[in-house]
Amino acid sequence: MRVAREPLSAWTASETADAVRSGEVSALTVTRAALDRIAAVDPRLHAWTLVDERGALAAARGVDAARARGESLGPLAGVPTGLKDNFVTAGLETTGGSRILQGWIPLRDGFHASRLRAAGAVLLGKLALDEFGMGSSNENTPFTAVRNPWALDFVPGGSSGGSAAAVASRTICFSLGSDSGGSIRQPASLCGIVGLKPTYGRVSRSGLIAFVSSLDQPGPLTRNVRDAALVLGCLAGHDPQDMNTIRAPAPDYLEAVTRGRMHGLAGLRIGVHHEALALPGLDPAVRACFDAALAALTAAGAELLEVSLPHFRHAVPTYYALASALAASNLARFDGARQGLRMTGEDFVRSCTATRSQGFGEEVKRRLLLGTHVMRDPSGLYERATRVQTLIARDYTAAFERCDLLASPTTRLPGFRLGERVHDPVAMYLSDIFVVGANLAGLPAISVPAGFAPAITGRPRLPVGLHLIAPLLAEPTLLRVAAAHEASTAWHLEVPPGVA
Amino acid sequence: MTRVTKVMAGATVMVGLEFRCRLATRSKLFSPCPSAIDATPDSQVDAHTLALPGTLPTLNRQAVGLAIRLALALDAEIEPVSRWVRKHYFAPTLAKGYQITQRESPLARGGTIEVAGRALGLTSIYLAEDVGELRAGVVDLSRAGAPLLELAGEPMIMRATAEEASAFLRALQTIIRASRVADIDMPGALRCDAHVSLWPKGQDEPGTHCTIKDVESGPALEQAIAAEVLRQTALLDQGMAVAALTLGYDAADDRLWVCGDHPSATQCCYLPEPDLPPLRIDTAWIERARAELRDPRSLS
Fold first, then answer.
1. What is the DSSP letter of A8?
2. Rounded to a whole number, what is the distance in Å from the CA of B42 to chain A's nearest CA?
3. pTM for the complete prediction?
4. If you placed Cys at A209, which of A1, A74, A86, B114 could pair as Cys (CB 3.0 to 4.6 Å)?
5. Which residues pair with B195 in a beta bridge?
6. B8-28 confidence digits (pLDDT tens)
């Protein structure tokens, strides 16, 4: 058996769960190995903000005990995992990546922690993020910035940068991130792993600290497509706690993966938006990887065709108008009166102002100012942004009348160095150009490893992602195509040199 | 009261009434937290009420049912689709930093409260969540999130005295009692805001209005409006402008005071509430409420 010859850290979530269920390895052994690996590699990466060794070992013993009693184990039995620190976790400090929530220890698990635990997963701790999800580099943090396992002086992407770096560095099999404007897919691309953003409403947001309520969507970061399908299957479905969750039952995502791997893509039409590729700033190495990915898809039987998305160029400004306004709205609750940081002043307004001035970082303050401006704008900026959002969504609907899926690179550059863009927020915002459309239209999208930009002067060898967008609730199509691509490539098997 | 009559010879008194009915539901408007009107301070608080991160609103359908029933009792038209907005302002009594309301897209429109041949037309009837209370500087969130049905009346021209306004308040109390949607005899079950302005003769439009908040009884409403008319008259007589103020009224001392914890319209901003889908009310739901209105035994 292949898994028996490789170190535990190389096992995928599916392999680990199968081995724990069959008794080939105990959950305790897997958990100890993961904790050892965190201790060995994370001091270089800073992906973990909190490691709950005691809780993890207890959970692992619980899984082993359940097996000993002959109970049937869940689909993630004994699989080590971590959650982005904007997911609410019982007994574990939940900061949202912000000083303003430091010290807040929730009493109850949110939806995600409780679903994963019920599936048998072992929660090792919490993962770093840009403050409240606002950022594309993980540098917007009052704590330590996360490093990219492929090149330690490069950013891991964001905002789910800790979630991506922890999986890429093989400390855990999978993690959860949240994606409001590319925050799962962009770091997955920069760290050379799989990142899946489901259809808006496919996975509950209950227990996720809200950032852009109309766009936020939790999803898995994994090392292969099958694990993404496995984890999505554990999370997808209606949740009475989130009134926006979709009532349709979740289909069999693993079956879609098998179909893609076994039966190829005959009859499938993939749309390519060439106009977007022609925009300035696309790295030639990224372009080369993308062309190779398209070649792999056509070799698997897919047909390529050109599509048009007329409102594409408005996506980034529309996103920032909506996201800033909703951030200002959702972060209004942090007044220091109930949890986290509390500064005292003579009256409510002064204490609240002091708490927020001290508690929020620079980027959050920038977005709160922008957002308050958007909300108060007399010409109805927010309302207009939602109308553009509708136009953008219609573009996708029209495109999907002609094709089954859209493909693009995930990012324009293979990555950037820590500190390289912190003083240019607009350049940072534009790095979201290929990914925000899926959020605005509520569509499922995935980034999968698609090769490497070779080392050139001033830049090491870095991973590149292929980005796929599917129609609403067409996660099976997305997973099928991603699996077919993965079956014909080996990029997802490479190990980052920084943590080998 | 005699002085008021004298003043009104020179100016018309305009009064707009808004009523706020605390619906008698088991739980709050957006969470399963209990929602008794006579709860002790801070006894009805859960993660939602505290606005803990990660909590989302879930709509209480019992509150919607009671809202439809009262709207029907007032002969209002139920809107098949109504929407939620977030009304933002900073106040210690507002844990989320915004209040969820249907202010811009109400559950029902129209309807009337009739008193001895005169009818007060209602412009809109909508659900909103209540905010917490400030008692001697201490925040109590027991009431926060309780379901309110807001009823906005058309502005009306006052006749000789403020008695008419209180007659409408009493009439509404009777309708609410008959439709059994609120514990109408409990303090806080029905609160009334009065927007009062003077319209001096010869001017094109009424002057700036001031709002007296949270008056609960007919006599108090009469006295509060009378006191406010006197206050505005005195200002105008001295050639001073009326500033838009939010006022409280202390019935025991017959005293108006400027209230700090209610935001003015310019301090608030609104966003559509993305956590809640539009509220759709079908005929079956309306007919159920109509049956409950007619027959107490069919109460759900």
1. G
2. 13
3. 0.95
4. A86
5. B16, B211
6. 457 889 999 999 999 999 999
